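User: I'm designing a mutation panel for Sodium:proton antiporter NhaD and want to avoid disrupting the core. Could you give me a predicted structure to guide residue selection? Please restate the sequence first so the numbering is unambiguous.

Assistant: Good idea. Sequence first, for numbering, then the predicted structure tokens:
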Amino acid sequence: MNSSRMLPFQALAAAGLGVMPLAASAAPGLSRQLDLSGHFVGYLALALFGVAYVFVVLEEVLELRKSKPMMLAAALIWVAIAVVYKDEGMSEVAEAAIRHDVLDYGELLLFLIVSIAYINAMEERRVFDSLRSWLVNRGFSYRQLFWVTGILAFLISSVSNNMTTAMLMCAVVMAVGKENPRFVGLSCVNTVVAANAGGAFCPFGDITTLMVWQKGIVEFWTFFKLFIPSVVNFVIPAGLMCLAVPKGRPAPILSKITLRRGAKRIVLLFLLTVLTAVGFQNGLQLPAAVGMMAGLTYLQLFGYFLHLTHRDEPAVGIDPMAGEAVTEEEPESTFRFDVFHHLARMEWDTLLFFYGVVLCVGGLNFIGYLHHLSDFLYGELGATSANTLVGVISALVDNIPVMFAILSMHPEMSTGQWLLVTLTAGVGGSLLSVGSAAGVALMGQAKGVYTFVTHLKWAPAIVLGYLAGIGAHFLLNAAMF
């Protein structure tokens, strides 16, 4: 997720200043809706959202989980809205609106729960550790490793989240390049750009892409038209950075990781789950989340099979820093497969933060601010300028509320423009190290080596890739505009 500022919401406040309070307006699915953008409740909602985001930005300083202020702000915004609508005798209108937002969140939550459960299961079965071990044993040169980790980050992030992918690749480059900080820093920048680009062309790669797909705005396979623009976005800055990668070959590392039983079958079950979700959405016109929940039963049943056929075995692992094989003291029985253990390990703070964001932005939309912002962005600026600007904003503000706001506005755009905003919202976080969860995570993982300044030095190359990716989209998918 992206670190946030409040640039777009300052524009929201300005847009609402001239609006008459309590002016009734029509809204899809609602008989009456009040425009509160010039009302005290509107200003209060903006203030609450703004203060909550300040706490989000200061999360590490205050040691206050980001979900707490955002969920509180969401509750207070909707309480304020409900009070006004109750006074006007229109409580059912506010109720219908918040139920719609909760339903949107519920579908995404179920989808993400299944996806994360599979990722956690693969991590526990050592799929990612095995990949890391294979990479460090190959004896790649620094430049080969730079490209291999970047390409793998690009591909893996299309089905996994960008933070997990980036941390996996960072572990590889730190293990083999710990004696060469320059190589580690460049590879981290490359990994962040690659991971963000890889999530843009597949609905499973990024939450923003997933939201667009689940809304039914763009068909599943249509997203893959962004594959080449995403590649361009990654390859151009990577090609320029590669020139600065030191020559030579790191010292070989002895590393051995043994996959736990069932690891490969869980990977296959995850791919089957993806196909099930696509079949539900495209073939049966049912929510993709329902298909994902059906896919969760595959993992549950396989887990039951692993439980019935379990056998105790010594578990062999590796010290990733020393590069030496070690035998774990505890037997394999310690690692009995448990689906609900993987569900419990989810990053609930992020999922609950997402809930707060959805309800806060939904409240601002219901108040009327997003309607005015849509008029400005997509009316005065035009779709192309607005969608290009979204990428810049997503480097400063979390891309989840930005995309949810755009979906709430639902501007009239061609499929090509919807793909453009999906691309820019996904890759825009690469413009700054704090612009995405991948960048923030790597600054902690490679502390002192990969920093804000390290990333900023390559900002011109990343911007060039960003603009070239947009250009490639217009060139290759011109018929969709």
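For picking mutation sites, this is relevant: Confidence is low (pLDDT under 50) at residues 1-31, 314-334. Residues 91-124 form the longest helix (34 residues).
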